[in-house]
Each structure stands twice: as structure tokens, then as C-alpha cells.
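Backbones bend. We report:
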Amino acid sequence: MMRSMFSSVSGLKSHQTKMDVIGNNIANVNTVGYKASRTTFAEVFAQTLSGAGSPDANSGKGGTNPMQIGLGMNVNAVDTLMSRGSLQRTDSPTDLSIEGEGFFIVRSGFEGTPMFTRAGNFSIDKLGNLVTSEGLNLLGWQKYSMDSDGNYIFDTQEEIKPLNLYEDEYNLNKRIIAAKATTQAVLSGNLDATVSPVGGYDDGSGVDHSINGAAIDTIPDSLDSSGENNEDGIPDDGNANSDPHFIVPLTVYDKLGNEYKLNVRFWKNFTDSTSAEGPETSWYYSVAGEGDTSFGDGATGFIKFDSDGKIIKDDANFGVKETIQVIPSAITGTDSFEFELNFEKLSMYADDSSVKPTQVDGYPPGTLTSFNIGSDGILTGVYSNGRQQPLALVGIAVFDNAAGLQKAGSNLFLPTSNSGDFTRAYKPGTEGAGSLNPGTLEMSNVDLAQQFTEMIVTQRGFQANSRIMTTADEILQELANMKR
């Protein structure tokens, strides 16, 4: 009789433990990144009244099963369910969730013990640190290099460190991006093949100068023209007094970030029908600037197109890449600088002219105005000059057995001997680490309907065990009354 009472006591205690777990799950139904717990039971050691008997082939007697009486139950395990919770959209640039496996890595200060969380509700403190609501620093990488294609590469083999958007040991001040001088400008588009060649020039004296004949490589010292006057040869800007057929605005910068607004002007010059490859058409270009800005060699020249409208690249007298020397006025306080003007992507077809600058490097200084985080974990700063530059890379930890992590409060976990050690961090989306969902939060994975069902079942189990206690007590009472 006493065994039944003690069995019911174990049942009451175990069901109370399960109710505690259910209550905690329901309490955290709206907690960001919370992982629900699950309680399972197991029977305790059973008392064996008799062992099993094997069948006797000689006598024909059958075998018997063991006779045992259980001694109650206990809590077998309280597991952490690591399934992903639903996502809540917040549109906050510092809110993150993980699509797949892994945990954010945080710690207190520079020397604290790394801890792990699925709660991605981060914020930026006044120093630029990316921190949790408890002030723990989010860890990752900030040192990067650039490959030959212009892609930014973070060295994920380096030690992870607290992420700071404003400064770090590699970039002392990330709030400001320094100016970069223009080194190249590529012009792309079409020059209208249907426009008429200039065919002459006007020197501003009121005398028209006719230019006829085949192309020559070297301008002579003098040019015979009809009329009473004998004029000098065609000046370097011989087309400059005629309206250009097309003008391309181009903005370049020196190393201090001073802006220079230039115009690349084009005139259709002549068509050479004597070429063995078919008619070839040349265009004259001239680079002009504003104010006192002047130019060195390369600011004027010729380009040439074949009969198919493609630019000719192998003629030494008609370049497709020219070095333009910009000579600033004295008030800018900067030296002259050069950039390459590239015509390789120009064409000449019977369509409107549409040339525009592309792939122009160089920019003025800028200040950090905002940032965004990509699914690959790269934090990219957006600057007032339109430039974007990486600021940091978020690290993700992956464990062999995430369910073996130990809860440490505040949605944090610590590794245990059964979870596997934390050895290194990974870039999001690589080597088993999930990618990031910026602007979202992972909510609790508690299933409220399931918890209420579990609560009802647990309540009934508790009631049933209490009935065993009262029934056993009544039987003992009857035994006691027999003495009377």
C-alpha cells in the first residue's frame, strides 16, 4: 500500500515539474529568440517479485514472464527545442534573424566569455558599438581587402572582435570617407552617323576657311585657301568655333575632393573613302572646363570608326585611350592630375547620339549617413557622396548539437560538453551557417495551442495521481478501523 502512495508522490512531483516548464514556455510566448522546453517522463526502477522462467521442452511446461511492480516515475529530460520561430518584420536596420542554423556571438567588452543567442534585436550605442539590449557586443570581423574585381574580402580566419560602425584598429574614423582622385573615365554610347561633317572652321575673324581633301597625319605649317588671304594651318581647336555635334558632361575630382565639371565635345570631321577596309569616319574631340581650369596634352584629338560603325583601336594616329592632364587654378591649392579618357565603348550608327560617362572613379569626401546589412552579413556604410563601403562582417557560430547548449538567461546560451566546443565563427551563408534576414526578428518558437493541450493533460495527470493518494489513504483508514 505504501508503494502506491510513494508512486503517486513521484507522479505529483514530476507533473508539477512539467507544469513549471509549460508555465515558463507560455510566459515567453512573445520573447524574441526564445526556445521552448519540453518535459519527458520515465518510470523508475521496478521491484521484481519473480524472474522470468524459460519453457521446458522435456516436460512441456511453458515459460513465465517476470513479475515486477513499478515504483513510480521521474522526470527523464527537459529538452530545449531548437526549431526556428516565426519571423516578425520590423524594418529596423539593426534587427537581424538567422535563416537556418547558427547563433549570433556576443560578449561583454573585449575580454568577456563568448555567449550565443538567436535574438537579433541589436542597437548602436553612442560609440558606434553594435550591442544587445543588455549591452553585450556583437562579434565579427572588420579587416578586409579588395580583390582584382573590386570585391571586398573579409579574412574570416582572423579572430572575431566587437563590431563598431564608427572606428576600429584598421579604419580609425569610418564616419568619414576620404576623397579619391579620378584616374579613369569610360565613355559609352553612340555618335550619330547621319550628321554632316564640319568641313571647315571659323577662326572668329569673319573669314570662312574651307577644308577639303583626304586626311593627313600631320598638319602643315601653312594651308593654301582660295581668296586673298593666306592663313596659318588649322589650330589645335580648329573645330572649337563650330557648334559641336554632341557634348558629354563629365565630372572629375582631384585628390582633395575638388570637383571639376568638364565637357567632352565631339565634331564629325571627315570620311576617308580611300581605305582598303572601306569608308572610315573620324571625329574630333576636345575637353573643356569651367573657370581657370586648363588642360595639358591629350585634351584634343581624333577617334575613327570603320564602315560597320565600330571604333578603330589599332590605328596609332587615332587613339581610343588618352591621358588627360587637368591643371587646376591656383585657388584650389592642389597639383595637376591626370586621368585616362577611354573611348573604346563608343559606336557610330544612324541613331541619335547617346554618349555618356560610365565607370568613372574618383569622388569627393563624404560622411556616413546610414548603413545596411546584407544577407551575407556584411554591414555596408552609405556616405553623403553616394559611395558605399563595408564596415564589418557579422560572425555566426555553429554547434554540432545545438540542443546541448545551456541556457544562461536573457536569451543567451553557453556551450557544454554535449553541444560541442565553440572553435571558430563563420560567414553567414557558408559552411553550414545560416544567412541573415535584415529588418526582421525571430520570435519565440512556443506553440501556444500545444502548450495549452499539454497543460490540460498535465493537470489531469496531476489529478489522477492525487486520487491515488486519497484512495490509498482511505484504504489505510479502513485497515486502521478494523482494529476497533
User: Anything to note?
Assistant: The radius of gyration is 41 Å. Residues 201-220, 225-238 have pLDDT under 50 and may be disordered.
